[in-house]
Description:
Strand content: under 5%
Largest sheet: none
Order of helices and strands: HHHH
Helix content: over 70%
Shape: globular
Number of helices: 4
Distance between the termini: 10 Å
Amino acid sequence: MQKSSLLKVISILFIIFGALSLLSSLGKFTENAAYGGMGIGTSVLALAAAALELAAGILGVQDKDNLDVCKTLAIVLIVLAVINGLLSILLVTTFVGVMGGSAGLGVAAGVLTGVIVMVFALLLPVLYMIGIKKSRA
């Protein structure tokens, strides 16, 4: 089965961004550990997401018929993108509230930031999923 060119291009982007994210996550691990359990948890989640991106990219460019595994990775990356967006909403809303902003401003800033984060985080996994569907056709 021939894989679509869209899947291969997105897979190459996943390899590039996954490798860069992996290096960045490893570099920030010590810094985030200073924040305690929450910082360590964030670092572990970032490492896992970067490793999944890298794995999705490598599996996407291989010539083997592994579209089911690729689809599973795409779904996991989509779920992680939604979780990341929701956490961004929570973080920005809380931060604006702590800094003394009005409640309406905090919610508006949090929702806007979260939506922007989700749109950009969902872009590659959704295109990856479309590439998988084109490869099956």
